[in-house]
Amino acid sequence: MDIFLNVLKVTLEEGFMYAILAMGVYITYSILDFPDLSVDGTMPLGAIITGVLIMNGVNPWLCLTIAFVLGAVAGAVTGILHVKFKIRDLLCGILTYTSLLTVNLIIVSAGTGGMSIASFFREPTIFNTAPAALVPEKIGGYSLRILIMSFVIVLIVKIIMDLYLKTKSGILLRATGDNSRFVTMLAVDSGKIKIIGLALGNGLAALSGSVIAQSRGSADPQMGVGMVVLGLASVIIGLSIFKRFSFMKTTTMVILGSIAYKACLSIALELGLPTNYLKLLMAVIFTVAIVASRISIKKGGAHVKA
Amino acid sequence: MLRLENITKKFNIGTIDESTVFDNFNFQVKKGEFVSVVGSNGSGKSTLLNLVCGTITPDCGNIIFNDKNINKLSEYKRAKFIGRVYQEPKAGTCGNLTIAENMALADNKNQFYGLSKCLSKKRVDYYKTLLEKCDLGLENRMTTKVGALSGGQRQALALVIANMSDIDLLILDEHTAALDPKSSDTVMRLTDKLVKEKGITTLMVTHNLRFAVEYGNRLVMMHEGNCVLDIAGENKQNVVVDDLLGKFYEISIEKGN
Questions:
Q1: Of A18, A278, B55, B136, whose CA is between 20 and 30 Å from A157?
Q2: What's the Cα-to-Cα distance from A99 to each of A61, A67, A94, B8, B200, rounded to whole Å?
Q3: Are B92 and B73 in contact (CB under 8 A)?
């Protein structure tokens, strides 16, 4: 029972934290229809900048903001490569991701005096200072601070995103992914909107990286490997499982998708799968999710783009 | 109002597929005119519209709009004063958004798309009054996703949306071609109503000779990048479909088709 509750706790924690990234992928992939690979670079960018800044005594909440902004800048670069230099979408993400590999190494090495990992176990993070400090360290033998804080953060991000998607700018973003000619007819430069969307998506990816780094107390450039697959899988799983609940907001579906995805991984690991197989398993779950969503389309179920 | 001067436009320059659509082409539209353009495939009708809208730029020549050279103006900037309805019903609206959301976006045209709320109850009531004119019952389906509408309904909506802001020129790019006969009649009647209401200058490309004859106050037939027929006013009223068909055959025989 203890083991079960512990696995559940970790699954939810990770599900919430990675859901922020998944919501970013939802913006680029589902709303904008842009296959963005820069996420693999922007997520660790957010994590590393957070690690380095916290080691230098910067307020952990401020780190979240800085991570978001830096991620947004990197996402905007992807967008500018695509819109202004007319490079194919897939390639733009690869270019940004490859550049970020170097950028991340430089930041971590400059910030830690030559190390390849930023560790800040005993420093203040959003999980051990106010307002998280209001939560008792142990509740019934469990440390719930990370769970509660990550839930609160993902909830805030979700609410802001729901509100944003109802604004003029938000609906225009949805229109851009759907029919960019329509946006042109509204006398708006659809390229600019794409750049904004990519900035938002990657800002969220970096924010997620910042939260994850703070929960672990460390950050390294390797964290980003497989983030695109993780984000896409969460979005596709979430949208295809929960599409039939029409009352549910898509952002909620994405969060649940992220939890479901993490649950699959947790179960596999609990059943004794060696961690070396983790990335392979990620890809397999992703494939199953895509195929399953196709089948549900054939049965007249919800349509999910994959 | 709209003047195309000495336009030359070639496609696939430098390849064996090089084709010249326009060679020193001149064309004018006066304010308040409703021009129907007919012509066979490849005669340059669509190229004409794309040049006016800025989808493509001419190799030589000038496009003058209200005494301003708009050659260098990008497509989205021209959309401030040009409205366009495409052939495909999907092009003029957003299928993933509701009718109300589509209209709210169009309502905000030429203003900043910021962080204020997009839909307001009061404006939605106003959109309903606009849709009532279509007589398709769309006003009762404001929260329906546009993707669920039929082609005719979608095209009617696209037409209303294109006319929501104050545009100087309306471009209709075979906008009834993809519709069934009944829907295309409905959409065409709606077009005429909207155009007459605002006295808006209109350039309509169509393959439907009956529409070209019945609607509008000027008729142009194009062939191989030239206007082979250009009639307006009283002469236009006397034209019948058979005259146009005759002209079509005449051209075809001349060219040995």
A1: A278
A2: 27, 17, 9, 44, 52
A3: no
For A106-186, strand residue ranges (E) read: 118-119
The CA distances from residue B49 to A289, B53, B56, B111, B202, in Å, are 45, 6, 9, 25, 11
| Preceding peptide of A136 cis, ω within 30° | no
- How much is the pLDDT for A3? 83
Cα(B171)–Cα(B84) distance, integer angstroms: 5
Are the C-beta atoms of B107 and B164 separated by less than 8 Å?
Answer: yes
For residue B124, what are the contacts with CB-CB under 8 A and spacing of at least 6? B100, B103, B104, B142
Q: Is the pLDDT of residue B255 over 60?
A: no
Q: How far apart are CA A207 and CA A202, in angstroms?
A: 8
Q: Cα(B211)–Cα(B207) distance, rounded to whole angstroms?
A: 8
pLDDT of B257 higher than 80 = no
What ipTM, to 2 d.p.? Answer: 0.89
Verify whether the Cβ–Cβ distance B75 to A168 is below 8 Å: no
What does the alpha-carbon distance between residue B72 and residue B142 come to, in Å, rounded to a whole number? 38
Quick one: which of B155, B118, B123, B162 has its CA closest to B138?
B155
Distance separating alpha carbons of residues B16 and B20, to the nearest angstrom: 12
> What are the tens digits of pLDDT across the range A176-225?
999 999 999 999 999 999 999 999 999 999 999 999 999 999 999 999 99
Contact across the interface for B115 and A169, Cβ inside 8 Å = yes
> Helix A89-112 vs helix A60-83: angle between axes, to the nearest 10 degrees?
150
Cβ <8 Å between B113 and A189: no
Dihedral sign computed on CA atoms, order B161, B166, B170, B171: negative
Q: Is B253 exposed, middle or buried (0-12, 13-18, 19+ CB in 10 A)?
A: exposed
Helix (H), strand (E) at residue A163: helix A145-164
- Going along chain B from its start, the domains and CATH numbers come out as 2-254 (3.40.50.300)
Of A212, A103, A186, which is closest to residue B94 (Cα–Cα)? Answer: A186
What does the block give as tokens for A266?
């947790």
Q: Which helix (H) or strand (E) holds A88?
A: none
B77 touches chain A (CB under 8 A): yes
Determine, for residues B76 and A188 on separate chains, whether the beta-carbon distance falls below 8 Å.
yes
Test mutation, A27, A161, A166, A171, chain B, max B CBs within 10 A: A171
